[in-house]
C-alpha cells in the first residue's frame, strides 16, 4: 500500500509572520468563563500586593504612594486633563497593534513609528504655509503616511527577503531614533533657529499655533483635547471594521489560518502588509498628537516618544487585541502615567510605575494563557473517543464504554 504524504502549508514570504501567528494564538487562547475571571481577579490582587511590597522595600509608604497617584491623575479636573492627554496617543498605538496582531503580523516597532510620525508631522507643520485647519490636517496626515510607509518597509523585507517582522520592526526603532536625532541636529533640516549667540539645542522650532490641536474647556476646569476625540473615533471605527466588514473577516482569517485564507482567495501578503502599514500609521498619528497637543513642548525632540509606543503595545495585550476594550485600558495606563510624576514627592522612585504596569500586564494576560494550556494538556491526556476504522468487530456501544472507562 502506497504511503500517503500530506503537503505542508505554505510558509513562504507571502504569508503572515509565523512568530506573529504563534503569539496571537497564545495571547488569544479562546477560553472564557468564570475560571478566567476568577484567576484574573486573583492575579491582579497579587500584582497590587507585590507593588505595595516593592514600595515598602524601597523605603516608601504604599498608602502615601497611592494617595500621590490619585492626586496626580484623578483628584481634580486638571489632573484628569493630564491623564486624558496621555490616553489619546496610547489608544491610537493600541488600536494599531490590535489590527496588525489580527493579521498575524506582530508589530513591536511602535516606539520608532511614533518618532517617525512626529518627524514627518514636524516637517509638515514647520515647512508648509497653509491656513490653520488645513495645516493641522496636514500635520496629522503627514505623520500617518510617513509612519505607515516606515512600517510598510518591514512588510516588504518580509515579502521579498523573508526577514522576520518582529525582528525588523524592533531594529528599525533604533534607526528611527537616529534619524530624529540627525534631523534636530542639522540646521538645514529641522534644527531650531539660532537666536543671537545662544547655544542651539537638539530640537526643532515650536510648532506654530495654527498647527496645534485645540482643546475644549479652560484651565483649571476639565479640558478635552481634540486628539482624544480622534483616538476614540478611530477605536470605534476599527472595532466595527474588524467585527462587521469583509475586510475584518479576511484579516482575522489570515491571522488564524493563512493557508485557509489563501485557499479562499485572500491575497495574504498584501492584506498582512496593509495591516502592518495601518498599525504604523496609527502609531505615527500618536506621534503627531505628542507633537501638536499640550502633552509635550510642541517641539520635535529625540526623546519625545516617552515610551508611548511600548506602553501602547501593552495596552493592546491587556485588551486582548480588542479596540473597544483598549479604551478603558488606555485610561488606566494614562492614569498610571500621569500619577507617576507625583511619586517623587513621597520618596518613591518614579520607575516603580513601570514595574506596576508590568505586573498588571502579567496579571491580565497570564490567566487565559495558563488556563488554555492546562485545558489543552487535560484534553491531550484524555483517552481517545473514536473507534479505529480498521476493526469492524468493535461495536459503537463498546467504543462508548471504552471512552467512559
Automatic annotation (TrEMBL):
Subcellular location: Cell membrane
Residue ranges of the region described as Disordered: 1-20, 380-405
Low complexity composition-biased segments: 383-393
Topology term for the membrane: Multi-pass membrane protein
InterPro entries: ABC_transp_permease (IPR001851)
Residue stretches spanning the membrane: 31-58, 78-100, 112-130, 136-158, 165-184, 224-243, 264-291, 303-319, 324-345, 351-374
Keyword set, alphabetical order: Cell membrane, Membrane, Transmembrane, Transmembrane helix
A Pfam family it matches: BPD_transp_2
Name of this chain's protein: ABC transporter permease
Species the sequence originates in: Micromonospora harpali
Amino acid at each position: 500500500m502506497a504511503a500517503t504524504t500530506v503537503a505542508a502549508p505554505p510558509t513562504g514570504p507571502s504569508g503572515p509572520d509565523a512568530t506573529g501567528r504563534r503569539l496571537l494564538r497564545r495571547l488569544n487562547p479562546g477560553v472564557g468563563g468564570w475560571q478566567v475571571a476568577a484567576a484574573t481577579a486573583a492575579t491582579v490582587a497579587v500584582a497590587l500586593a507585590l507593588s505595595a511590597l516593592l514600595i515598602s522595600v524601597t523605603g516608601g509608604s504604599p498608602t502615601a504612594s497611592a494617595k500621590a497617584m490619585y492626586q496626580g491623575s484623578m483628584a481634580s479636573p486638571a489632573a484628569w486633563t493630564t491623564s486624558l492627554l496621555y490616553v489619546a496617543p496610547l489608544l491610537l498605538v493600541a488600536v494599531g497593534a490590535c489590527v496588525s496582531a489580527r493579521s498575524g503580523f506582530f508589530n513591536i516597532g511602535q516606539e520608532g513609528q511614533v518618532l517617525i510620525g512626529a518627524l514627518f508631522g514636524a516637517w509638515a507643520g514647520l515647512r508648509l504655509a497653509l491656513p490653520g485647519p488645513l495645516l493641522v490636517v496636514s500635520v496629522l496626515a503627514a505623520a500617518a503616511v510617513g509612519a505607515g510607509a516606515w512600517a510598510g518597509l518591514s512588510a516588504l523585507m518580509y515579502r521579498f527577503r523573508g526577514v522576520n517582522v518582529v525582528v525588523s520592526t524592533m531594529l528599525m526603532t533604533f534607526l528611527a531614533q537616529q534619524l530624529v536625532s540627525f534631523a534636530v541636529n542639522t540646521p538645514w533640516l529641522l534644527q531650531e533657529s539660532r537666536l543671537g549667540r545662544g547655544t542651539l539645542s537638539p530640537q526643532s522650532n515650536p510648532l506654530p499655533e495654527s498647527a496645534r490641536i485645540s482643546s475644549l474647556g479652560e484651565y483649571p476646569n476639565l479640558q478635552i483635547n481634540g486628539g482624544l476625540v480622534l483616538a476614540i473615533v478611530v477605536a470605534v471605527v476599527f472595532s466595527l471594521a474588524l467585527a462587521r466588514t469583509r475586510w475584518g473577516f479576511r484579516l482575522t482569517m489570515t491571522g488564524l489560518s493563512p493557508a485557509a485564507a489563501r485557499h479562499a482567495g485572500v491575497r495574504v501578503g498584501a492584506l498582512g502588509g496593509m495591516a502592518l502599514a495601518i498599525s504604523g500609521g496609527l502609531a505615527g498619528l500618536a506621534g503627531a498628537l505628542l507633537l501638536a497637543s499640550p502633552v509635550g513642548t510642541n517641539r520635535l525632540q529625540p526623546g519625545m516618544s516617552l515610551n508611548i509606543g511600548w506602553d501602547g503595545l501593552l495596552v493592546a495585550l491587556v485588551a486582548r487585541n480588542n479596540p473597544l476594550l483598549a479604551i478603558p485600558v488606555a485610561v488606566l495606563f494614562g492614569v498610571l502615567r500621569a500619577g507617576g510624576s507625583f511619586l517623587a514627592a513621597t520618596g518613591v522612585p518614579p520607575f516603580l510605575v513601570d514595574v506596576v504596569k508590568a505586573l498588571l500586564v502579567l496579571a491580565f494576560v497570564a490567566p487565559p494563557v495558563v488556563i488554555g494550556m492546562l485545558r489543552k494538556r487535560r484534553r491531550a491526556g484524555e483517552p481517545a473517543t473514536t473507534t479505529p476504522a480498521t476493526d469492524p468487530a468493535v461495536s459503537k456501544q463498546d467504543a462508548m464504554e471504552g471512552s467512559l472507562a
